[in-house]
């Protein structure tokens, strides 16, 4: 009579290996989010590779991250309700496995274009926040970001550039956005709170000319740890390790059954 523990061991091995498989396959994906930062554009739909993935996205909205396979993809942005062949943005971009990106629709609608940003979702060190500023106001001059009565944090940031991420001590700051190289304050940002462990993307959006210039903040969740860019491969068919774990569990189970039958 077969002991039930034999089958139990086999099934536990198979289930554990299968549990690893989705995570392993996910390592081949990139994370991509979309930000509507065009100040005079209507709400939009977003297509990726011909399929609609976001609907009726208003200004200013940041989507959640979408998982996309590594490689080249076609991104199209249309006024809401319009098909992909009516796109106001039609661009291709290549994304890498294990990396994250923001695709922002920037500029006035007559000159709208995609701005692709490389996101860093690494968790900040203890007591720190990570801060990036994105200049997305098409008619605003280059700017400096300053601590009021203190140092300049970011200098001469022009549309449509970003500052990259900087680690900053957690705390509450009185910040100003100044016309670059001057004491002229374009925006006053008192009481700006930066929490430890968070990532902040600060977008300067709107238009200076009609006094809609403002800042919008997104806080993408940090990754627990950086994912490897590529799965380990075998010298055989190049299958992911998790697939071989499944096969090994099945073979182990077969061996246990054979030994049981041979007794």
Mean pLDDT: 81
- Shape, please? globular
Total domain modules: 2
Instruction: Give the termini separation.
Output: 10 Å
What share of residues is helical?
A: 10-25%
Assembly level: single chain
- Largest sheet composition: 5 strands, mixed
Indicate the CATH topology of the largest domain.
Immunoglobulin-like
Describe what this molecule looks like in 3D.
- The chain has 263 residues and is α+β, with helices and mostly antiparallel strands.
- The protein folds into 2 domains: 119 residues, Immunoglobulin-like, CATH 2.60.40; 101 residues, Immunoglobulin-like, CATH 2.60.40.
- The protein contains 2 helices and 17 strands.
- The strands form 4 sheets. Strands 1, 4, 5, 8 and 9 form a 5-stranded mixed beta sheet that branches. The protein has a 4-stranded antiparallel beta sheet with strand order 3-2-6-7, with no helix packed on it. Strands 13-10-16-17 form a 4-stranded mixed beta sheet, with no helix packed on it.
- The longest helix has 23 residues.
- It is globular and about 50 Å long.
- The termini are close together.
């Amino acid at each position: 009579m077969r002991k039930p523990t034999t089958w139990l061991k086999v099934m536990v091995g198979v289930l554990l290996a299968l549990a690893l498989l989705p995570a392993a396959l996910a390592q081949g994906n990139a994370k991509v989010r979309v930000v509507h930062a065009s100040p005079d554009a209507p709400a939009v739909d977003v297509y990726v590779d011909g399929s609609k993935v976001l609907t009726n996205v208003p200004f200013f909205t940041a989507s959640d991250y979408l998982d996309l396979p590594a490689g080249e993809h076609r991104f199209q942005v249309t006024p809401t309700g319009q098909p992909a062949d009516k796109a106001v943005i039609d661009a291709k971009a290549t994304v890498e496995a294990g990396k994250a990106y923001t695709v922002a629709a920037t500029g006035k609608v007559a000159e709208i274009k995609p701005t692709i940003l490389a996101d860093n979702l690494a968790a900040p060190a203890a007591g720190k926040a990570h801060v990036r500023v994105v200049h997305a106001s098409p008619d605003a001059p280059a700017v400096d970001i300053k601590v009021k009565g203190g140092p300049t944090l970011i200098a001469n940031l022009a549309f449509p550039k970003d500052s990259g991420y900087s680690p900053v001590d957690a705390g509450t700051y009185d910040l100003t956005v100044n016309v670059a190289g001057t004491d002229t304050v374009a925006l006053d940002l008192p009481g700006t709170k930066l929490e430890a462990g968070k990532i902040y993307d600060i977008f300067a959006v709107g238009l200076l000319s009609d006094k809609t210039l403002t800042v919008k903040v997104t806080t993408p969740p940090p990754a627990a740890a950086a994912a490897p860019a590529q799965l380990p491969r075998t010298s055989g068919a190049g299958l992911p390790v998790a697939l071989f774990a499944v096969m090994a569990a099945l073979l182990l189970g077969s061996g246990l059954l054979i030994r049981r039958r041979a007794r």
